[in-house]
Amino acid sequence: MNFDNFETGAELSREEFDQRTPDLRVELLNLQFDLRSADFAVLILIMGDDRRACEELTDRMHEWFDPRGLDTEAFLDEREEELGRPLFWRYWRALPPKGRIGIHLGGWAYHAVAERILTKGGKRRFARRCEHARAFECVLTASGMSIVKVWLHSSTKALEKQLDRADKNTHGWRAREYDRTILEHHGKIEKYGEHLIEGTESDWAPWLVVESTDKRHRDMVVFEHLRDRLAGRLAGAVPAPFDPPLEAHASEPASPLRQLDMGVTADPAEYEKELPRLQRRLSDLAREARDKGVSTVLVFEGMDAAGKGGAIRRLVRGVSAALYRVTPISAPTEVERAHPYLWCFWRQMPRAGEIAIFDRSWYGRVLVERVEGFATQAEWTRAFGELRDFEAQMTEHGTVVAKFWLQIDTDEQLRRFEAREHTPYKKYKITDDDYRNRGRWDEYVAAVDEMLLRTDAKHAPWHLIAANDKHHARLEVLRAVCKALEAKL
Amino acid sequence: MNFDNFETGAELSREEFDQRTPDLRVELLNLQFDLRSADFAVLILIMGDDRRACEELTDRMHEWFDPRGLDTEAFLDEREEELGRPLFWRYWRALPPKGRIGIHLGGWAYHAVAERILTKGGKRRFARRCEHARAFECVLTASGMSIVKVWLHSSTKALEKQLDRADKNTHGWRAREYDRTILEHHGKIEKYGEHLIEGTESDWAPWLVVESTDKRHRDMVVFEHLRDRLAGRLAGAVPAPFDPPLEAHASEPASPLRQLDMGVTADPAEYEKELPRLQRRLSDLAREARDKGVSTVLVFEGMDAAGKGGAIRRLVRGVSAALYRVTPISAPTEVERAHPYLWCFWRQMPRAGEIAIFDRSWYGRVLVERVEGFATQAEWTRAFGELRDFEAQMTEHGTVVAKFWLQIDTDEQLRRFEAREHTPYKKYKITDDDYRNRGRWDEYVAAVDEMLLRTDAKHAPWHLIAANDKHHARLEVLRAVCKALEAKL
Predict the structure, then answer these.
(1) Which of A300, A375, B272, B396 is most buried by its number of CB atoms within 10 A?
(2) Chain B contact for A77, CB < 8 A?
C-alpha cells in the first residue's frame, strides 16, 4: 500500500462531467429510493489526508442524494458522553437503520490516525483500533449492512498549492490556519493512513482510494463506485463476511458445568452475617467508583429459576439507586431489529461511574438463539469472537466486567417450578414454555459449556456459580463483584 | 400551602410496619407485573427538602419493586449534552415507555428550586419552569401516563437532629458536609417548595406531601398511595387531563391562506443572482452559529407537491453537511407509539450550534392527524397549546425557530402531479393516495388556517409562502432563515 501509486493526475473535463452527471444523479436517487424498502443499510466512511476534500465530498453527498435519507455524523470534537463510554460507542450510536444511508465523516479512521500522531507510544493502540474496526465492520456486514470506505488522497505539493490559492481568499482564515497545521503533519497522516488501510482492508469492506486533486474526477469516481456497489447489493450481491471457522479445542475439554460441585451450601449463620457486610462493602465501592468515573458491566445468565433476579436484588440492596440500572433483555423491538444485534447492547453502555446490570444479555446469541434456532449456525459461531471483541472494548476503556452463570440441576428446577405454583407473586407464575424448555436441558448445557470455554477472559471472566443453594449463590456473586471492583479501584 | 401543616409527628411502630409490609409488597409486585402488559407508563417524581429521605425512598423503590421494571434517573449534575438542549429535553429523554415505571429523583422540581436559590432575579424563570412543568405533566397525562409526585418534608429542627446523629458515624463526611450546606438553605428550600407545589398542583398530577422524619411512617404512606393509584389506574380510573376549551377568536378571523397572493413570482435573472448569494450568506451564518453554540430548528410543512424537498435542498446547498440534519417525519414506530407523541420530536432537538430541519413535523397532530381522524378532537384541540409550549421551550433556550408553510393551489398541484408521471425519479411517483388527498383539500385548508392562527408566535413565526412559483418560494425561505439567524447572532 503506497499512496504514490494513486497520484495519477487524472482529470475530468467540465464538459464530460456535465454530460455524465444528470443520468448518474437520477440513478443515485432512484437507488436511494429502492434502498428505503430494502432489508439493509449503507454506511459510508469518508476519510483522507485532504481535509477539505473530505468535507466537500460529504457536502456533495448531501446534494446528490436526498438528504432526508442520510444520517451524517462528523466525528471531530469529542463529546463528554462519548468520552465516558468505550471507544466504538460513538460509531455504533450513529449507525443508520435499515433503508437509510449513514455517512461517517472521519469516523473511527480519523480518531485512529489523530491519536497515533498526537500521542506517544500509540503503536499498539493504533493496531488495536484497526482490529476493533475490522471486528466492527465484520459484525455490520454480517447484519447485511453495505460498507463503503473512501480515502481521499492528495500529494503534499498539491495540498500546498490548494492552500496558497485559498490564501488569496480573504475569508476563512481560521480554517486555513488549521489546514496549515495539518499540512505539517501530512507526511505522518499519509504514513499512518497507509498502515490503516493495510490493517483494515477486507473483501467485505474494501477501501476506495481516490486522488482528490481534481474535484470532478474525484466525485465521479466515488459516486460511480457508490452506484455500482448499491446497484449490485440491491440486485442481491451480498458480500460474505469473514466467517472464522471455530477453532478446535486442543483436546476434548472437560465440561465446566459437569465439573461444578453442585452440593455446596452456605451456612445460615454465616449468610446472615456476611450478606449485610458485603452489601455495605459494595455500597462503599460503588460510591468510590462513581467518584473515580469507573464504570461497571455485570452480566447475569442462568437456567430458568436459577435465581438471577434474587441475586441481583441482594447485590444492589446497599447500592444507591442513582448509581445502577438493571436492564432486562427480552425479544428485540422493531427499531432494534432494524440494526445489527449488538446495537441495542452498545446503547446500554453505562455512563462514567455507573453500573449496568444485565438480566440476560448479548449471550442470548449463543444460548437461546442457538438452541431455539433463531440464529443460524454461522451467526452463533461468529458470535464468540464478536462478543469477545465487544467486552475487550469495555475493559480497554477501563470498565469493570464480570459475568455470572447461575447453575441449578434439573431436580432443583422442578422443585422451584412446583413451589411457584403456590407463590402469591404473579411474575413467578410458571408457563408451559418453562416446562417445554426443560426438554432441551442437555442442549442448553452443551451451549453453556461452549460459551464458558470460548468467552471466558481474564479481563471479563465468567463466574460459574452453583445455585442450588440460593444463599451460597448470592454471597458468591457479591464477593466476586466486590473483588472485581477492589482490583480496579 | 404550608409545610407546617404536615409536621404531624406521625410515627409507625416497627411491629405494625413489619405486620403490614409483606402483603403490601406482594401487592406492589403484582401491580407492577400487571403494568407490564398495560397501555400506560407510571412516572414517579421524588423531591423534597430532606435530601437523604429522597435517596432512601428511591432506594426502597428499587427494593420493593422489581428493579428490572424501573427506569430511574437522578437529576443532579448537569451533563454537557443536556446543557446544549432546551431545559425539559433531559426529562423527556428519561421517560419510561408503556408498561414500565420511571423514577425521577429530583427531576424538574429539583432544578427549579436549585436555580431559584442560586441565581438572582430568578422569580420569573421559576414561574416559567412551573408553567412548563404543568404543560409537561398535562401532555404526559393525556398520553395515558400516570404521574405520582412525592414531596418529602422535614422541619429544620428534625434535619439538624438527623445530621447530628450522622456526625457520630465516621463514614460519609463528604455527604454530611454537603448536607450542612443544604441545611443553611433549608428555609428557602421550604419556601420555594411551597410555591412550587402551589404552582404545579393539579387533579391529574397531584402532590403527595409526606413528613419524612419517621422512615416507617414515610414509606408506608408513600407505598400505600402508590398501590392505590396504580390499582385504581389499572382498574380503569383514567385521570382526565386538563382540556382547555379552544379560545374563540375575537371576531371571525380572515383566512391567512386565502389572503395570500398566489400570483407572485421571482424574476429569473434575480433568482440566478440571489440564490447563490443567499446560500453563501447562510453558509457563513451557519458557521457563526456553530461557533457561538446557537441551535436552529426549521419546520417545513406544505401541501403535497408544494416543493418542500426542493426548498430544503436549496436551503442547505451552501451549508456544511456536518452542521445540519434533515429529519423526515413519517408514521411513528413501535417504540415511538409507546411514548407520548411529542417524545420523538424532543429526541431530535439539535445539539448546541447545529441545525435541525424537519420535513413535516409535530404539526402533523393538527394537520393530517386531525383531518384523517387519527387524533381525537380533544387531542388536536389540546395540541395547539402543547405545541406552543414546546416551541417556547426552544426559544427560551436560545434556539432559533422558524416555520414554513408552502402553499400551492389545486391547479398547480394537479399540474405537478401530472408532470411527475413523466419524471425519471422514482421517489416522485404519484400514488392513488396523493389523488385521494386532493379530495380533502378544503378540510386541509381549514386545518392549516387554524394552525397558522393559533401557533404563530413572535419567537417562532410561521412564514406563509406562495409556492406556485418554486423560485420565489426558495428565495423566500432562504431570506427568512438568514434573517432569523442574523437577528439572533
Answers:
(1) A300
(2) no
B135 and B31 in a single domain? The answer is yes
pLDDT tens digit sequence for A329-377? 988 888 888 899 999 999 999 999 999 999 999 999 999 999 999 999 9
Long-range pairs for A259-263 at CB < 8 Å and ≥24 separation?
Answer: A260/A407, A260/A464, A260/A466, A261/A466, A262/A407, A262/A408, A262/A409, A262/A466, A262/A468, A263/A466, A263/A468
Average pLDDT score over residue span A84-97: 94
Confidence of residue B332 (pLDDT cuts 50, 70, 90): confident
Q: Is B259 on the interface with A (CB under 8 A)?
A: no
Whether A81 and B79 lie within 8 Å, measured CB to CB:
yes
Q: Could you tell me the residue range of the domain that residue B118 belongs to?
A: 3-234
CATH code of the domain in which A9 resides: 3.40.50.300
Q: Examine the domain organization and report whether A264 and A228 are in the same domain.
A: no
User: Model confidence over A93-133: pLDDT tens digits?
Assistant: 999 999 999 999 999 999 999 999 988 668 999 999 999 99
Smallest Cβ–Cβ distance between B62 and the set A32, A66, A321 belongs to A321
Domain count, chain B: 2
Distance separating alpha carbons of residues A394 and B376, to the nearest angstrom: 48
Contact B326 A359 (CB under 8 A): no
> Are A325 and A444 found together in one domain?
yes
CA distance A184 to B397: 41
Residue among A321, A333, A424 minimizing CB distance to B59: A321
Q: Which site among B24, B35, B63, B68 would you substitute to test the A interface, given the most A Cβ atoms closer than 10 Å to its Cβ? A: B68
Question: Is residue A382 within 8 Å of A70, Cβ to Cβ?
Answer: no
Give A312 to chain B, closest Cα distance, Å: 9
Pick from A234, A267, A291: which residue ends a domain? A234
Residue B246 lies in a domain: no
Q: Do A29 and B426 touch (CB under 8 A)?
A: yes
